[in-house]
Design brief:
The protein is α+β, with helices and mostly antiparallel strands. Helix content is about 50%, strand content about 15%. The strands form two sheets. It has a five-stranded antiparallel beta sheet with strand order 1-5-4-3-2, with helices on one face. Helix 3 packs antiparallel against helix 4, helix 5 packs antiparallel against helix 11 and helix 10 crosses helix 11. It is globular, with a radius of gyration of 19 Å. The model has no long low-confidence stretch (mean pLDDT about 95).
Length: about 290
């Protein structure tokens, strides 16, 4: 792929910064007022136009990929209103107030549809890690084991396929910064390289969750992240420290993390994961409830 390839420009209005900073992806970096990233070996540049819209620049052949990646064809307005209505109807008034504040702050946030393999690896790396460090490790993995791709005067490095990581050794992974996660990533890469990866969209949510948890280094929270950020299973509801705190403090939920996850899924329905992202980003950024 060269800089002379024909390019496409997708124009859209959404909250790019919140979408990229809300813990969904670690494949982008900002440079000179634009965001640059790569997924599935497809480079992209995103810049803000004078009218406030964002322009997504990519090779013409990849336009449909990036449209799906950023879920640009779906409107969230009705779904979001349903979240708040459900809180009021089911006696979670305080939670509804907090969620409404998050929606006001980040109303243009989108749920991503990333490649499954890349998302599995990203969230194995994410365990007990900070976002900036995850981004750094993700980039070093791509540089060390991926392939260089020239586009728009820049060199991008694609995320490595399973066979590349399966052939690696633990020492090389640890040198990149994976620490105790290194053998998990290698073992999962070898399993997927040998058997392929399941069609998660073709499974029920429970089946897909069970499959992912069978992979080394993937617990329930990581599995829910993978399902929410790369598949059709928008009912997935990852519960980390921020979400656990929010559901207890703002929604009055009690019990184990698995129990409050199920309660939140019952409250928010089939698109519960979208509510999770608003709540998660609101908690991390310290958005006030009123």
């Amino acid at each position: 792929m060269t800089a002379s390839s024909r390019n496409a420009v997708l124009r859209t209005h959404f909250d790019l910064r919140s979408t990229l900073a809300s813990g969904q992806t670690f494949a982008f970096h900002e440079d000179g007022g634009s965001f640059f990233g790569i997924a599935d070996g497809r480079p992209v540049q995103i810049r803000q136009a004078g009218d406030g819209a964002y322009e997504i620049l990519c090779p013409d052949a990849d336009a449909d990929f990036w449209r799906r990646y950023f879920d640009l064809d779906n409107s969230y307005d009705k779904i979001i209103k349903g979240f708040v209505d459900s809180c009021l109807q089911k006696s979670y008034e305080a939670g509804g107030v907090f969620l409404s504040a998050c929606i006001r702050g980040f109303g243009g946030l989108r749920l991503l549809r990333q490649p499954v393999w890349e998302t599995v690896c990203a969230f194995i790396v994410s365990a007990n890690n900070r976002q900036k460090r995850i981004e750094s490790i993700y980039g070093r993995l791509s540089y060390a084991f991926g392939r260089p791709i020239e586009w728009a005067g820049r060199t991008f490095h694609s995320f490595p396929p399973p066979e590349s990581l399966a052939a690696s050794d633990e020492r090389a992974m640890r040198e990149i910064g994976l620490g105790y996660r290194a053998p998990y990533l290698i073992e999962t890469a070898r399993a997927i390289n040998k058997r392929g990866i399941a069609d998660l969209d073709g499974l029920t949510y429970e089946e897909a969750l069970k499959y992912l948890i069978s992979l080394k280094g993937v617990g329930e929270k990581v599995a829910d992240c993978v399902l929410l950020f790369s598949t059709r299973h928008r009912v997935a509801f990852p519960v980390d420290t921020w979400i656990d705190r929010a559901l207890r403090e703002h929604f009055g939920m009690e019990g184990s993390r698995s129990a409050i996850k199920r309660e939140a899924q019952d409250l928010f329905g089939e698109s519960a994961g979208l509510a999770q992202q608003f709540i998660f980003h609101g908690m991390r950024t310290g958005i006030p409830a009123a």
